[in-house]
Amino acid sequence: MKALATSVGLLALLVTFGCGSAVAQQAKLDVRLGKPLMMAAEKQKVFVKVGLTGFDIERKNGARSAINVAIVLDKSGSMSGEKIRRAKEASLMAVDRLGPDDIVSIVAYDSTVQVLVPATKASDRAAIRAGIHRIGAGGNTALFAGVSKGADEVAKFLSRNRVNRVILLSDGLANVGPSSPTDLEALGYGLGKRGMSITTLGLGLDYNEDLMSRLSRASDGNHVFVEQASDLARFFTLEFGEAMAVSAQDVKVKIVCAPGVRPVRVLGRDAEIVGREVHARLNQLIAKHEKDLMLEVEVPAGEVGAAREIVKVDVVYSNMATSSSDTLSSTVRARFTADKSEISRRRDREVMVRAVQLVSNEQNRMALQLRDQGKQQQAQQILQDNAAWLDMNSVTYGSAKLKDLKRQNEEDARNLTPGKWKKRRKVMRREQHRMDALQSY
Amino acid sequence: MRRSLVLILALLVLAPLGLLGWLGARMAADEHARVEADFARLVEGRLRETAAALVRVPQRIERELLAIAGEFPTDPHHVRRLARRSLHFDHVLVLDPQARLAFPPLASVTSQGERDFLKRTSGLWEGGALVSAPRSEAGKTSVQSHGWHIWYWGGGLNLVFWARHRDGRVIAFEVPRVKLLAEVIAGLPESVPDGPQERTALLDSAGGVLYQWGELEPRGAPRHELALAEPLNSWRLAWWGPQPTAQSGLAMSALAALLAVGLALAGLAAWFYRESSRELRLAAQRVSFVNQVSHELKTPLTNIRMYAELLEDELFDADPKSERYLGVIVHESQRLSRLIGNILTFARGQRKKLSLVMGAGSVDEVVREVLESYAAGMAAAKVEVKAELDAPAAVRLDRDALGQMLGNLLGNVEKYAPGAPLTLQTRQEGAQTSVVVHDGGPGVPKAHQKRVFEPFHRVSEGLADAAGTGIGLGIARELARLHGGDLRIEASETGARFVLTLKTEPSPTGA
C-alpha cells in the first residue's frame, strides 16, 4: 500500500517536471502542521491543514473547462415583480457568456416544476432566451422538486470533463414536497456524490438560510445571500466565472494518521473519521484559490530531537485539463524539542490563522443556535468572547483577516435584536459557509 | 264530447313525445356515463403507467445493489470504500451467518455516521427483523434471497434492501429516501406551460405532496387514486381533473328529432280535430234539422190524430169498411206521433235538456191507457196480451214519459215479436215500481244485449227486417234513469224480457 502511494507520488512529480517551464497542469497539495516543532515528552494536539489549489488550464485555443449547468429559478408568487425580472435578466446575461461547448438547462418551479429549457448546448441561444422569457411568477414553492429536476437535467450530460452545477435561486421557504433542511442536505449529499455541486442564492429576507446553506454545504457548493434583486446579475457573474475556472473536480482526500496519532476532529467540513483514517470530499478546485481541510490530531509524547510522521495524505481528483484521474500524495512530519520559544517561533502562522478562523466559526454557529433558542444574552456573550479571542489571536499572528473576523463577530453581537435578526441571521449563515468552504466569492 | 276529444288528441301527441323524451334523456345519460367511464379508464391507465415507471426506479436500484451484494467484500476497509463511492447507498449493515452484526464493527472503530446509522437501524440488527431473512437451498447464484424492508424513523419512510449471500451473510443496504425520491422525480413528467387542466401528485403516507405536476390547482379529494407497488407502497398517486365534457351533439340531435316528431304529431292532431269537429258540426246541424222538421210535423199530425179520433167517435155504427180505414188512420198517426216524440226526446237528450214533468198518477192507469191505444196494433200483429197489473197506488210520476217508455217497448213487441203472447206485469214495493214486458219473440242475442240501448244500434240491419230508427230503447232507458230507475234486459228462456224500474214516491195529494 505504502509502496503504491510512493510510486503514485513519483508519477505526479514526473508529470510536474515533464511540463517544463509551463505552469503545471496539476492541482497543488500542501499539507502543513500548525506546529511543526512540538513540545517533547507530552501528549498534545496539533492542527494539520491539507491545502488544495487548482490551476489555470492552458489549452492551445485558450478554451476553458466546459460547464454543464442547470439554472433553477423559484417563480413562486413572492418572486413576482422586480425579483423575477432581475432573475431573468441575470440568467439571460449568464447564458450570453456561455460558449458553444457549455450545456445549460432552465428549470422554473412554483407548486410544480417546468423544465423550460431541457439540457442543451449553449449555442442554441434563441431557444434558451425564449425559455427564460416564458417565466412568470405565481404559486407555491416546490424547491425539492425543482432541484431534483434541475439535477436530472445536469445528469443528462454529467461528465468529468464538465463542471456540473445546479444553480438554485429562491426567495422563499420550501412548502411543497420535502422541505426540511435535513432532507435537502441529504439531497445535496447524494448529488455531490454523483459529482454535482449546488449553488444556492438566497434572495431577499424570506428564504430559509438553513435549508439553502446546508444544501450547498452537503454538495460542497456555494451559498450566497443576495439582499437586493439588483445584485443578482453580479452574483451570477461571479458564480459562472468560478464555474468556468474550475480545473479539478471530485477531489477525494484520504488522511491516514501515523500509528499512535489519533484524529480528533475535522473543522469546517464534513468528513468521515474511521479509526486512524479520515475521508473527505471536495467538489471542485479553481486556480489560485486554496481550499482546505483542517484536521486536529492528538500526538503521543516524543523524545527531544526525535522526528515523527504525523499524517500521510492521498488525494485523487479528476483533472479537467487532461481528463484523467490524477493522484497527489504528501506526508508531514513533526520534530520534538524542549525549547518553548522556538516552538512558538516556528509556528506556521497561516495554518494557525486558518485554525482560529474555523474554531471561531464554530463559536459563531453556536451563538446562532442559542439565539434561535431565544437565548439572546448568551448568544451575545459568546460572540463578544469570540471577538475578544479573535482580537488576541490577530495580535499573536499579526493577522488582518482575524481582525476583520473580530469586527464581524462584534457586528453579529450588535444585531441580535428581533428587528435586525432576520437579516443578520442570513449574513451569519452566509459568512459561516464562506469561511468553512473557503468560497471563492 | 269535444273536451274529451281534445284530451285524447293531446294525449296522442304528448304520450309519444314524453316517451321519446324519456328515451332521449336515458340515451344521453347512458352516453354521459359511457364517456365518463371511458375517461376514468383512460386516467387510471395513465396512472398505472406512471406507477409502473415509478416503481422501475427502486427496481433498477435493486438490480444494481444485487450485483454489489453478489461480490460483497468482507474487509471493513473495502466495505467503507464501496459505501463512499456507491451512488446507491451511503450505509450498509452486514450480519454474519449467525445473524450477528458484522459491519459496521460495533466493538472496534466506527465513524460518527456509522454510529448514527446503527442507532436508527437498531431494530434491524438487534430486534432481528432481518435475521429471519429466508435461506434458499437451491440458490446457485451468489445471492440466495433478497427483499425490501420498510420502516418509519425520523419522520419518514426508510428503505433497506437486503440480500442473503451464499456464504450466509445478510447484507442490508440503506437506500436514502431523499435520494430515491429525487430519482423518482427525475423520471416523472414536469408541468407544461398552458398544459392540460389537471393535476397529478405523488403523495406520501400522510397525504403530503412529494411531487406534483399539471396546471390545475386541486380542490377537494382527488378523483382517482392509485397505490404504488412495493417498496413504495406507502406512497400513492392522486389525480385531479375536470369532468369529461359530454358530447352535446347527440343530445342536440335527439332534441331536434323530438321536436320534429312533436310537430308532426301536433299537426296530425290538429287535422284530426278539425275533421272531427266538422263532422260533429254537420251532425249537430242534421239533428237540429230533423228536430225542426219534427216540430213542424208534430202539430199537423196531432190535428190529424185528434180529428181521426173524433171522427171515430162520430161514426158510430158506420159501415165496417169505413171503421177499419179510420182505425188504420188512427193507429198509423199514433205510431207517427210516437216516432216524432222519440226524435224530439232524443234531440233534447242530445242538448242535455231532457227533463221530466212530475205529476200525480197511477202506473197501472198509464199501462192500461197505453195497452188500450196499442190494442188494435197488437191484434193486427196477433199478439195476445196478458196483463198482470199490481201497481195501482197514486204516485208521483211523469205520465207522458212512462207512456213513451212503454210505447217504445210495446212498439218493439209489435215489430219484432208478432204472433206470440206478451206478458205485462207491474209491481210496487215501497217507492219502487217495476214493469216487466216479456214477449215471446226471438229475443235479443246475448252479444247485443248491452248495445241495444245505444242510439242508432239495431240488432239486424237487413233490408227485409222490420224498419226502425234505433233510438227507441235508448230513449226509454234515458227516461227511466231520469225517473230514478233503469231499463234492463233480463235473462229469459224465451223471448225478450225487459224490466223497467221507476222511483215512484207516493203522491201527497192522494188518488
Summary of the model, kept short:
The complex is a heterodimer of chains A (441) and B (511). Chain A is α/β, with parallel strands linked by helices.
Describe the model:
The complex is a heterodimer of chains A (441) and B (511). By secondary structure, chain A is an alpha/beta fold. Helices cover 40% and strands 30% of the residues of chain A. A six-stranded mixed sheet of chain A has the order 2-16-15-10-13-12. A six-stranded mixed sheet of chain A has the order 6-5-4-7-8-9, with helices on both faces. Chain A has a four-stranded antiparallel sheet with strand order 1-3-14-11, covered by helices on one side. Chain B is built from ten helices and 16 strands. In chain B, strand 8 and strand 9 form a beta hairpin. At the A-B interface, strand 6, helix 4, helix 5 and strand 12 of A face helix 3, helix 5 and strand 7 of B.
User: Biggest β-sheet of chain A, characterized?
Assistant: 6 strands, mixed
Tally of helical runs of chain B: 10
Mean pLDDT of chain A equals: 90
What is the radius of gyration of chain A computed over CA atoms, rounded to a whole number of angstroms? 23 Å
Helix content of chain A: 40-55%
The counted number of beta strands of chain B is: 16
Beta content of chain B: 15-25%
Mean pLDDT of chain B equals 84
N/C terminus separation of chain A:
39 Å
* Fraction of residues in helix of chain B: 40-55%
* H/E series of chain B: HHEEHHEEEHEEEEHHEHEEHEEHEE
Biggest β-sheet of chain B: count, sense, barrel?
5 strands, antiparallel
- Largest interface, C-beta within 8 A: A-B, 36 and 34 residues
Q: What is the quaternary state of this protein?
A: heterodimer
Helices and strands of chain A, in N-to-C order? HEEEEHEEHHEHEHEHEEEEEEEHHHHH
Write the layout of secondary structure elements.
The complex is a heterodimer of chains A (441) and B (511).
Chain A: H1 2-18, E1 28-33, E2 37-39, E3 44-53, E4 66-74, H2 82-97, E5 103-109, E6 113-121, H3 125-133, H4 143-156, E7 162-170, H5 181-193, E8 197-203, H6 209-218, E9 223-226, H7 232-244, E10 246-257, E11 262-267, E12 271-274, E13 277-286, E14 290-299, E15 307-319, E16 324-337, H8 340-345, H9 349-372, H10 376-396, H11 400-414, H12 418-437
Helix pairs in contact in A: 2-3, 2-7, 5-6, 6-12, 9-10, 9-11, 9-12, 10-11
Chain B: H1 2-70, H2 76-85, E1 91-95, E2 101-103, H3 112-120, H4 122-125, E3 143-152, E4 157-165, E5 170-175, H5 177-187, E6 199-203, E7 209-213, E8 224-227, E9 236-240, H6 248-314, H7 320-350, E10 359-362, H8 363-380, E11 385-388, E12 394-397, H9 399-416, E13 422-429, E14 432-438, H10 472-482, E15 486-490, E16 497-503
Parallel strand pairs in B: 11-13
Antiparallel strand pairs in B: 1-2, 1-5, 3-4, 4-5, 6-7, 6-9, 8-9, 10-12, 13-14, 14-16, 15-16
Helix pairs in contact in B: 1-5, 1-6, 6-7, 7-9, 8-9, 9-10
